[in-house]
Amino acid sequence: MLPSATSYIHSLSAMANSAPASPCNSSSTSDTINELFANSKSSIADVEVKFSGANLLLKTVSPRLPGQATKIMSVLEDLSLEVLKVTINTADETMVNSFTIKVSVSLRS
Fold first, then answer.
1. In what order do the strands lie in the sheet with 35-41?
2. Cα 16 from Cα 93, distance rounded (Å)
3. Cα(58)–Cα(35) distance, rounded to whole angstroms?
4. What is the pLDDT of residues 21-68, one digit of tens each?
5. Distance CA 83, CA 63 (A)
6. Measuring CA to CA, which residue among 32, 99, 33 is closest to residue 60?
7. Who's near 108: CB < 8 A, 6+ residues apart?
8. What CA–CA distance (Å, rounded) separates 38 from 9?
9. Using alpha carbons only, what angle is made at residue 94 by residues 93 and 97, rounded to the nearest 5 degrees?
10. Which end of the chain is more exposed for a tag (fewer CB within 10 A), N or C?
């Protein structure tokens, strides 16, 4: 799940810098709202990544796994990403993690 999210973050960053008006594969762009969006669905988790202004929104939906949010936070910190807000919700056996991440100049370049 985390490699997918990391890959999407870097792919979207590259797209944002190169051609924000051209859609590609599972990503879409919009000039009017200045957002870039991608998602990935697998048997492990659904991962959604969206650039919105100066922030990146990362959302994962997966079965409940002990320590999952802590592992995601650890990977984000290892990538030197500044997490501004974390929301963790559970319903029955499903866990939804939402992270608001500040996009640094180095990530966008």
1. 27-30, 35-41, 46-52, 55-63, 94-102, 82-91
2. 35
3. 13
4. 433 334 444 444 456 778 888 888 899 999 888 899 999 999 998 888
5. 23
6. 99
7. 13, 16, 17
8. 9
9. 140
10. C
Helices 2-18 and 68-78: crossing angle in degrees, nearest 10, is: 40
Rounded to whole angstroms, the Cα distance separating 15 from 12 reads 5
Phi, psi of 27 (to 5 degrees): -110, 155
The residues, any chain, with a CB within 8 Å of residue 48's CB and separated by 6 or more, are 37, 38, 39, 40, 57, 58, 59, 60
Tokens of 16: 């944002």
Read off the pTM. 0.66
Structural contact between residues 27 and 11, judged by C-beta atoms closer than 8 angstroms = yes
Distance separating alpha carbons of residues 89 and 2, to the nearest angstrom: 18
Do 69 and 97 touch, CB atoms closer than 8 A?
A: yes
Contact predicate 15/37, CB 8 Å: no
